[in-house]
Amino acid sequence: MKKLSIQKLMAFAICLAFISYSHAQKIAHISLDSLVTVMPETNIAKEVAQNYLKSLDQEMLTMQSEFESKYKDFLEKEATMSETIKQNKQQDLQQLNKRIEDFRNQASQDYQRKYGELTAPIMDKAKKGIEAVAKEAGYKYVFDTSVGNVLYFEPSDDIFNAVKKKLDSMPQAAIPGANNTTKEPKSPVKSSPPAKTGGK
Length: 200
Hints:
By secondary structure, the chain is mainly alpha-helical.
């Protein structure tokens, strides 16, 4: 019993020490999704992604048009075809149809990969801005409220506006495939941060 009491006291002491240490740290929060949304580079990335998607769609339409043309030709001449030619034509149509399906699946994956490449430098810049503001203000922890379910948290500082201001003073993120420039927009997008939620 005595040994158990000592263990409980030690555990309680450790918990108190941890709580005291945690309260001594400056913490902040920010919605990373909201921050990325108002960054001007995001619109550039979306435009490049849309152009890439259009090129994939155009290739898909070309392949479908080829299939429809060959299928129509097959139906028109089927009655006069020998069995061997008919089988070859049917096989060609099946192979072309499979290529279309394979292309459709691959195009979806390519688009996701491309979008990831385009948004990577934007996320990198956003995180650098958050890190810069955190170091300047002495924050030990910055929580991202755009992921997970934050049911409760102690009051903390929302650094959205501070980071947005920091990003406006940083060089524009280089978006692959876009006409990048180091000039900052003359009229940066202004947006109010998401409403602060707290536990109290």
